[in-house]
Amino acid sequence: MSFAHAAAAETSVCNLSAWSTDPDPNGLAVRSGPGTGHAVIARLPPPGGVAGYDHAAEVTITGSQNGWFRISDAIVMDYEGDKPDKVLFKGEGWVSGRYLGLLLNAPTLHRGPSPDAPVVAQLSFIAPDGSAIGPDSYTVRLRACKGDWVEVDASFEDRYVHGWATRTCSSQVTTCP
Length: 177
Hints:
Helix content: under 10%
Order of helices and strands: HEEEEEEEEEEEEEEEE
Strand content: over 45%
Number of helices: 1
């Protein structure tokens, strides 16, 4: 048995939601496994004007492996309230964390997926112009997940931080409680 097979990555189990950020007109590739070597089994439309809505496809995340996220479905939510949600994908597929976004609600990032892990970044601060900046002001890139925790690279203007967050939100029109 080769070392590569012996060191095969395991899937971390998690329970999160996020949305597609992939601007590719062909859409975000949903693959049969975690990596570009796996077959494309579906495509999620790019954000903006998806299925008659102005919002991106939202995905339910059930696991992660090496920067890839296992999803169980993808829908476009009707935030206006007068149309049914549009189901775009149902089943099991994998998407790259480079093309997923969500809102951070917790004011800190931790070194690991635990409230007992050391805090590595405070996300709330007062900007030079006097405005209050909160965790939901950051743009994030998803790296991994475990339970309801997500590992992110987060940026706001020229500030870049890395760590684990909980209390995330996939609503594209408001922050979650």
